[in-house]
Amino acid sequence: MKQLTPEQLDNLEQDLNAIRDEVLADVGDRDARYIRRIIRLHRGLEVGGRALMPLGFIPPVFAAAVASLGLSKIIENMEIGHNVMHGQYDWMNDPALHSQTYEWDNTCTGDSWRRTHNYEHHTFTNIIGKDRDYGYALLRLSDDEKWKPAHSLQFINYVLLSVFFQWGVGLHELEFDRLRRGEIKISDKKQFLKEFFRKGGRQAFKDYVFFPIVTLPVAPVVLAGNVGANLIRNLWASSVIFCGHFTQDAETFTEEECDNGSKGQWYLRQLTGSSNFTGSKLMHMLSGHLSHQIEHHVFPDIPAHRYREISPKVQAVCKKYGIHYNTGSFARQYGTVVKRIVQYSLPDRLRLKLAPQTQAA
Amino acid sequence: MLSLLATKPSLHWLGKQLFNREDPAAFFDPLLERINPMWVRQYVPARVQAVVDETADTKTFILKPAARWGGFVAGQHVTIDVDIDGVRRTRTFSLSGAPAQWKNEGTVSLTIKRLTGGLATNWLHDNLASGDVIGMGEAFGDFRLPEADEPVLYVAGGSGVTPILSQLEAMAQRGYQAPVTLLYFVRTQADIIGAEKLHALRLNWPALTLRIIATNEGESPEYLKDTHFDDVPGVNARRCYLCGPKGLMDLAGELLAKRGIEEDRIHSTFFSVPTATLDGDSLGGEIHFSRSDIKVTSEGDAVLLETAEAAQLSPQHGCRMGLCHQCSCRKTSGTVVNRLTGRASGPGEETIQLCISVPRGPVSVDL
C-alpha cells in the first residue's frame, strides 16, 4: 500500500475536499436537467422495448427490442438507481429520486443494497475480510486469501456470477460463505430472505411471467427477449463493476493497515483501490459513470455525470502525492481482470512461476 | 386510464410489481410531461390561467388544477410545488377565491405577496406565467366559516387577508345574514390586496362592514387599539377570525381575550412560521444522525431540518412549517420541543417532523 505521512494525508484530504466543495457549490439546474433527461430516455427505451417485444418473431425487431429493453435496464440500474441510492440527487427534494426510498429494476432490494454497497463496500473498500464485495466471497483475487483446490475452478464461478449477476447481488447479504462456515445461522437471515423473495419474485414475475402471459400467442418470444435483456444488463454491470476494483493495479488492504481510520487515509484507500476505464460519453453514461470509479469512490454522493469533469483535477491531486491513477481502455482493464481471476485460481507456486510479477511486494 | 392504476386496488398492486414504485401511475410522468404536463400523476398538476397584479408587490395567480383535485372550503390553504434551480420547493398559500369558482369554472386563486429575500415568492413573481404548470397538494386547514349565520369579526393584516377574501366571497354568495366586520390593517392604501373585490362585496352585500386602517400614512404609525373593537357593534358576541403578522395576531388575541371572548370563538391561521416562545437556555444539544453516522451540536432553537442540512444531509422535506409531514422521520432517542406548540416530546422512539423539532439535550435521529 502506498504510504503517506499523516501530514500528507491531511493535505490530501483538504485538496479533495476542495474539489468536492467546488462541485457542491455549483450543483443545480444543470444536474437536475441531466438526470431528468436520462430518466426520460430510460422510460422511452423500456416502453419501446416492451412494446416491440411481441413482434419479436421478426428477427431484426427482436434484436431491436432486446437491445432497447437491455439498455433501459442498464441505464436504470447504473446511471439512475445506483446513483440515486447514493444520495446524489437528494438535494432535488423530489420524492421519486430520494436515496432512502428508491427501488430499482433489479432483484436486489434497495434496502439491502444501501446496507451492503453504500455502507459496507464504500466504507471498507478493498479491505480483505471487511469488504465483502472484494471477490464476493466467491473469487480469490489476491494472496491475502489462502489458495484452496476449489479456487482452481473459479473462472467458471466468475462466468456464472456474471450471467446471473442480479441474483448474485440480490443474495449478497445472505453471506452464504459465513453460513457455510457456521458463523451465522440461517435464522439470522430470515428477514433478509423474506424481502429478497418478495423483490426477486416481483422481478421474475414481471419479466418471466406477466409480460409473456399478456402476449400469450408469442409468449416464448417475449420470454426469450426478456431473458436476453436481463442477460445483457447482467454481463455489462458485472464487467463494469469488476473493472472498478479487480484490475491488475487495484490495491487491497489489511485491517491493520487501516487502523488509523482518518478521512485522509480513507481517501487514499479509495484512490488506490479503484480503477477507471476510458471511453466515449455514451460508454461513461452506460456505466453509470463507474468508468470513473476512482472519482465515484472518493465522492460517492455528487451527481455522477460530474465525475468526468473533475477527473483532471483528481488526477492532478494524485500526481502531486505520487499516487498511481489507475486507468486504461475498457479492453485493457477488463483483460487484466480476467487475467487476475485466472492467475489467482492457480496454486501460489504455479502462479509465481507463470506470472512472477504477482509476487506480493 | 392511468388513474385506474392509482385508484383500483388490483391494478395498483400490479403496477407496483411492474414499476417498482408505490405510485406506479407516475412511472410514465417523464414521457407524459413532455406531451402534456397536465397528464403528470406524481402530483396534481395545475396550469396557470392568468396572473393579475393586486398591488405593487402582490399578484393573484389563477390556476386550473387537474380535475382529480379534491376541492376546498373557504379559508383553507394548499401547498404548491415548484422546481427552482433544480430543487423542488414546497410552499403553502391560502386560497383567495370562493369555492364556487372551483365548482363553476374549475379554477382557484392564490394571492401571493413578494417577500423580501423570499426564494419562492420572488421566483413565482418573476417566472410563473400563463400556461405554466406547477404541482398542487390537496387543500387543508381548519380556518372555517361558522356553520350557522352568526356575527363575525375579522382582523386581517397585509397578505393575511387572502383566506378571508375567500370566506367573505363565500358568505356573500350564500347570502349570509348576520353582521360581518373586517378590520383590515395595511401599510398604505396602495397595499390593499383584493381592493376591487372588497369594494364590490361591500356594495352588493349589506351585512359587510369594511374598515381599512392604513398604519403608515399618518404622522405616527397607527396600530390595532382597543377602541377599534369598541366601534364594532356587539363585538363581544362575535366569532373572531385573525390572520396576519404574528405581532398583530398576538395583540388582537390578547385584546379580545380581555373582553372576555372565549378562546374557542377566536380562530387564527398562520401565513408564516409561527413560533411558540421557547425557553432558549435548555435547547440544543448533541445530535446523532444515526444512519449517516454524523454527530453535530445544535444551539438555541435551531430545528433539526436546518441542522441536518447544515451537516450536508438532504432529508426529504416540504413546507418547512410543520404542515405537510414530508420530513417526518424516526427519532430513536432524546427529547425534542415542537416549535409550533412549545410542547416537549417523550424521550423514546417516535416519528417527528424535522422542520419543527428543536432538540432539548442529546437526540438521535434515524437519518
Can you walk me through this structure?
The complex is a heterodimer of chains A (361) and B (367). Chain A has helices spanning 6-26, 29-52, 59-85, 110-123, 154-163, 165-171, 176-180, 190-214, 219-245, 263-273, 281-286, 293-298, 307-320, 330-343, 348-354. By secondary structure, chain A is mainly alpha-helical. Chain A has one domain (6-343). The radius of gyration of chain A is 21 Å and the shape is globular. With 367 residues, chain B is an alpha/beta fold. Chain B folds into 3 domains: 2-136, Elongation Factor Tu (Ef-tu), domain 3; 152-269, Nucleotide-binding domain of ferredoxin-NADP reductase (FNR) module (Rossmann fold, 3-Layer(aba) Sandwich), CATH 3.40.50; 280-365, Roll (Ubiquitin-like (UB roll)). Helices cover 24% and strands 30% of the residues of chain B. Chain B has 10 helices and 16 strands. Chain B has helices at 2-7, 9-19, 29-35, 99-105, 119-127, 162-174, 195-204, 226-230, 246-258, 304-310, and strands at 44-55, 58-65, 77-84, 87-94, 108-113, 133-136, 152-157, 180-186, 208-214, 239-243, 266-269, 284-289, 294-299, 328-338, 350-353, 357-365. In chain B, the strands form 3 sheets. A 6-stranded antiparallel sheet of chain B has the order 4-3-6-1-2-5. A 5-stranded parallel sheet of chain B has the order 9-8-7-10-11, with helices on both faces. Chain B has a 5-stranded mixed sheet with strand order 13-12-16-14-15, covered by helices on one side. In chain B, a hairpin with a 4-residue loop joins strand 12 (284-289) and strand 13. In chain B, helix 6 (162-174) packs parallel to helix 7 (195-204). The two termini of chain B are 37 Å apart.
At the fourth CATH level, what is the homologous superfamily of the largest domain in chain B? Answer: Translation factors
Report the radius of gyration of chain B as a whole number of Å.
23 Å
- The helix/strand order of chain B is HHHEEEEHEHEEHEHEHEHEEEHEEE
Overall number of strands of chain B: 16
Which structural class should the secondary elements of chain B be placed in? alpha/beta
- Helical percentage of chain B: 10-25%
Question: Looking at CATH, which topology of the largest domain in chain B would you report?
Answer: Elongation Factor Tu (Ef-tu), domain 3
Tell me how many strands of chain A there are: 0
Helix content of chain A: 55-70%
The average pLDDT value of chain A, as a whole number, equals 94
Mean pLDDT of chain B: 91
CATH class (first level) name of the largest domain in chain B: Mainly Beta
Assembly state here? heterodimer
Distance between the termini of chain B: 37 Å
Which descriptor suits the 3D outline of chain A? Answer: globular
Number of helices of chain A: 15
Indicate the proportion of strand residues of chain B: 25-35%
Q: Give the DSSP E fraction of chain A (strand runs of 2 or more residues).
A: under 5%
